[in-house]
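This section describes the prediction task in plain terms. A model, or a person checking by hand, is given the sequence of a single protein chain and must write out its three-dimensional structure as a string of tokens. No templates, partner chains or ligands are provided. The sample shown here is typical of the held-out split.
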Amino acid sequence: MPVGGYGQRGRVIFSKERLMHLTGKKILILATHGFEQSELEVPRNRLKEHGAEVHIASPEAGEIRGWDKKDWGKPVPVDLTLDEVKVEDYDALVLPGGQMNPDTLRLNEKALKLIRGFFDAKKVVGAICHAPWLLIDTSIAKGRKVTSWRSLKSDLINAGAKWEDQEVVTDQGLVTSRYPGDLEAFSAKLMEEIAEGKHTQRSAA
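The expected answer:
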């Protein structure tokens, strides 16, 4: 059931009775230095607005710094490191893009194991822009409907994914979008999937 409609400039409009529909849900955002600023902040803020508890995880303790369009952006405090994360504590995982961020994480075995752990536990996994690179390295992309930043199209197809040029693509709890212009649709679909709970019919890749 959709959580909202679209208003002017693509902003999602939510009814008052749905504003806290994620109360009790815990969401993890996994990122490192060079994440696209808006692709972390917009989903984080939308999820919090609707009652979810959101934590930022990274290989590094302290702070990670975002990339804001053409230059370094604001730092974001890290709540816990990869060694401290327990998949069972969370309902969903969100992977922001930015070219540097997923390219670094895809070389980190602990990060890849964590992402795969969320997927295997039938939990919602969201990835936007360049973050679907991580769906290749975790073998999640194979056989799944996805979208991404356009330069990843061939990589995803070669990995066995079914790539679509849509603002948001969902495949049994796997939510992907193309770029910052899709963030409101991406966030709305994430919230809808999280509210539905575990995707128990998701088959192994």
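For orientation: The first strand starts at residue 5 and ends at 6.
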